[in-house]
Amino acid sequence: MPASHLSLPRLSLRFVHVWRRNRLVWKKLAIPSMLGNLADPMLYMLGLGYGLGAMLPEVGGMAYITFLAAGTVCSSTMMSASFESMYSSFSRMHVQRTWDAIMIAPVLLEDVIVGEAVWAASKAFLSGTAVLVVAAALGLVGSALALWVLPLVFLTGLAFAGLGLVMTSLSPSYDFFMYYFTLAVTPMMLASGVFFPVEQLPGWLQTAAHALPLTHAIALARPLMTDTVPEAIGAHLTVLAAYAAVSLYAALVLARRRLLE
Amino acid sequence: MSHLTVSGLRKSYGGMEVVAGLDLDLEPGVCFGLLGPNGAGKTTTLRLCLGLTDPDAGDIRMLGFPVPGRAREARRRVGVVSQVDNLDPDFTVRENLLVYGRYFGLASRDLEARLPGLLEFAGLTARGESRIQALSGGMKRRLTLARALVNDPQLIFLDEPSTGLDPQARHLIWERLRKLTSEGRTILLTTHFMDEAERLCHRVAIIDHGRKIAEGAPRDLVAQHIEPQVVEVYGDGAESWADGYGRGASERCEKTGETVFCYTRDADAIVHRLERDPRLRYLHRPANLEDVFLKLTGRELRD
Description:
CATH superfamily of the largest domain in chain B: P-loop containing nucleotide triphosphate hydrolases
Number of strands of chain A: 0
Radius of gyration of chain B: 22 Å
Distance between the termini of chain B: 38 Å
Helix content of chain B: 25-40%
Strand content of chain A: under 5%
Oligomer: heterodimer
Structural class of chain B: alpha/beta
């Protein structure tokens, strides 16, 4: 691999052109896309929250549906960012050759990668926010402190978009993404405190869970949604930001290797 | 000042030298053809010139900017029609032009003003709201060409612009390209259709195995490299006819598939003899660029 592929990105606002392109496509199908994104997490939250929750005493010091609300905000953010940055970005990169067309304009690959990541994070933001709004309407949100969840959701979306773009840059076909969902997304759903507290896990698995970005997102979102100031805010944000930065750089290097050779 | 200069350009992939020391110089307003068989290094050369791939060696200057160092700045006044269709299938014809113009940092208002002219150039004025999937192959090519003009480029790259088009569509594309050079724009065109190069290009370079093996005006290359007349002979008996007579009666005689090509300064005797042989079909014509191309790059099949 030539050394130029490892060079740091030359960041600029040109990524907005790429973001606007994706938004224009999305606008044509916004309502069904939103509903589709919202339906799945809501069904889990309401079904498990009210169904299973009726059989449980408190979980993590609160009603189960309340516990589940914070987890659902973060997991739907993860899902939305992952789908967009893998299946949709892969379509644009590999199938439609949209990235190739953009890169013969005065736009760099880093602009494309950042544009795709910010776009996926924007869609994830809408998904997470939609769940938050429904949770608030159901009386599952403690106070206005929950508004801090909005920037958190965007940062979480960016971290998962970066990871998804790494997979996209490596992927030979759509089937490849199943590995990531099976080996990364599903274990994260189960180990990061979406459905039950991380403390229920065996010690070694708890340690592993603390390496996962979703764990840190939920560790911030759950207290914020139940009127509590979270602990170790800086540490959690640092992990999420590091995931975003490192994965986006890795995605750029891998995409350069794939597209600029 | 030249719009594009390339000197000593080299690029290898996995030990295979795809571009092996190439020099090019494109004066403003010229239509320059890069000709070569499949795998000769044409598309790689275009990618190198655009700064999409870093060369192993050599210098490129495009519109005054060094490439790849400042390729992005150079691309502001460059248009590209690539070989594979990469129109945006999620958009209409108009949206394709608008969105593409934004990648150049052009304001929506300026783009709206340019749009009718571009649609007219592409012959798609009535199809502005059509989806891409509804367009024919020729319409897509014309739209790709119009898209490449959205930034008013000084230099236009065309990678096999008429591949897959029917004759009507090819003629229309050629007419549009001539209009562009008459406006003073520079064109770098790759093709392996020699009739296309002969019609459009002021100058051509024939490249093979990454090296330039000839360069000049098409007419000069024909005069320089080939006898002026050709008789093509087809059919079952062509080969035995060539062995018995054709080879001796012409300066050079070659066989491709089931066709024998006799190259000569004076074809009268050959034609006279063929007229009396009802088993054989033949064509007597002046030599063209394809004859030069086949002579210089050989007749064996390339993949």
